[in-house]
Amino acid sequence: MRSGHAATPVIPVLAAGVGVRDAARYAIRLASFRLELPPVGHAALGVVASRPAASVALVGLLTGRTAPSYGQLRVLGHDLRTPAGRAGVRAGIGTATGTGRTWPTMTIRGLVDWAARRSGQPRHNRGLLVAAILDRLALLPWAQVPLHAAPALVARRARLAAACVHEPELLIIDGLFDRLEARDRMALTDAAGELKRDISIIAIERDASSLPRFCDEVLTLAEGILVAPDGPGDPLGVPKMALERHRSPEDEPVPVTSDRSAPGR
What we know:
This protein is of the alpha/beta class. The strands form 2 sheets. A 5-stranded mixed β-sheet has the order 5-4-1-2-10. Strands 6-7-8-3-9 form a 5-stranded parallel β-sheet. It has helices at 52-62, 83-89, 108-118, 123-136, 152-164, 182-195, 240-246, and strands at residues 10-22, 25-37, 44-49, 70-75, 78-79, 93-97, 170-174, 200-205, 217-221, 225-227. It is globular, with a radius of gyration of 19 Å. The longest helix is centred in the middle third of the chain and has 14 residues, at 123-136. α6 links the parallel β7 (170-174) and β8. It is built from 7 helices and 10 strands. α3 packs across α4, α3 (108-118) packs parallel to α5 and α5 runs parallel beside α6 (182-195).
């Protein structure tokens, strides 16, 4: 995995006034934030999202599965308002969730190898990548254990390994810490913090308790609004905290300058 980057600040994620509609309502009405890397090391941003639709929408946006309804969003240098940008970003992202589809006989190694093949890793390099991430996350002793039979902490670490086997630039964590015992949750956040040495992370969770252990900043997605105090600002020039204070849940989103505009009522 990459061990560093240039001294010039790098911004893997930049969102300005982003919104996305979910059926008849907006799952996200305003999102303005950035994930900026320091001169040395990498960064992690935590997002507390108690409403499932908002969490799903945010993950879909960041991974390129969903286009913004309006606003501007760049991830790893790709403009996610365009189909080409959404397709281009997927190779540089890994997603670790608390659950996922597997086969009854799938082992820990099998899950990670399947993820490596799915990411397009060549056969001659795949075995080395799988062994390296299993070793890094202390999973080698569990490699041949079926995923369904592994302890909860081991199974979650395996999902983390599968998300990172292709050495992504950005890791999206989605509900990975849900329904874990406190001790297991602490151990898993330590594993995420270790990966943060060379991978940028955005962690989206329903509960905020785990995030401060490895995140540099923790924001809350409430009523569809996610605004960082030191984020990129609203494209219309409205102060961010004023937007956060004065919008009511019934307010329609404000259209922003982009190639897509917010639909009216």
